Amino acid sequence: MTNNNTTKLMNKASAHTIKKFELIEEYVKSWAQKLMLNDFCNTLVFIDCMCNSGIYINDETCLQTEGTPVRVAKVLLDVARTYPNKNIEIYLNDINALKVEEIKKHLPHDERNFHVITKVGDASEFLHTIGSQLYNAKFLHYFLFYDPYKAIIDWEALFPFFRNWGEVMINHIVSDPVRAITQVKRTVTKEKYENTYLEDFEKLVPYGSDKQAYEKRVKDIITTLKGNRKYYVAAFPFYNSQNSQVYSLLHCTSNEEGFKLYKKCAWKVFGGQSSTKHLHSNPDQLVMDFGVGTSGIISTQTDESCFTVRDIAKYLSREFAGCQDVPLDALWSHLDNHPVFPSDGFRKEIKAELKSMYNVKQRLEYNLTTGKKEYLFSFQNLD
Ligand SMILES: C[S@@+](CC[C@H](N)C(=O)[O-])C[C@H]1O[C@@H](n2cnc3c(N)ncnc32)[C@H](O)[C@@H]1O
User: How many CB atoms lie within 10 A of CB 377?
Assistant: First the structure.
């Protein structure tokens, strides 16, 4: 039975919040499996510096549901048991002491190679303490989740996490400035936005309700912080039941495999699309496409805030227009570096769409060097 104090600490979780939990759980599960097979990793660290109470009430079903840290802890306990020679450490912090007391009740117990450390305090102070220890840490990989309620990003505290072996997930609450920026009067609120976007308030006001401007600013800051390393940032938008974007979940990593995996997990959790948006228009509706070099061909509609598998096929049909005998692998590796489209997952659906919608022809050939059979694809010219 849930007691009264626990009930008070349970926030409501809307559908998009539950998708956020699911996405991080799904990603950490696959990410941890990959890292456990890597000889250069013997300790895996998950950090949620704003962890909340661990349990929520599902807005739609009114049933209890677990938040990100509890889900991740359970997933990582399985990983610790499967790989007894590796260590798992979970660091959870929240400014609210009662929430931290509550979350402890929902976490698995420590085991020899599995430890959960909880703290009460300000996220920035907590990250300064951990961050300074990362520079000398060998064989350690971390995943840091930065999940505020408002558009608050403390870049200084995050800095060490962009420079070492690990990944950072930031919840950028883009709906906050969009709603408030033009009405802000208080100096403290102006400073909040200045610190998040590292820009004078006066220069932020013209951003107004342009979500993409704030998102670009955040990406530009990450590009500066990451230093000279090759770095990958993938951002997926989350929409509420009124189809308004509430936030973007940005995954930041120097590891290409992590980038590809995050895209794959996001599309899987969103059910074959790139956001939690409810698509009103019929994605099957055919339209005349008058884009550059596509003079009036028949195609499907695209909603840039919520791509579907059809948009991936459309993109490939343009990228490979007129190309003959393209090996299947070349199609998938072309998607590796795409900011949103996954190169893994939904391959069967993409191929089917290419054939039915874009008249792409497939043929089977035996590769005499490898002795393997491979599928080759020929694309129509668009003119
Ligand atoms: C969106 S919730 C976090 C949800 C959690 N990450 C999850 O996925 O279940 C934000 C949390 O940040 C906490 N918080 C707010 N300001 C904070 C601060 N300065 N330092 C640490 N925690 C803070 C709040 O108490 C709240 O529990």
Answer: 21
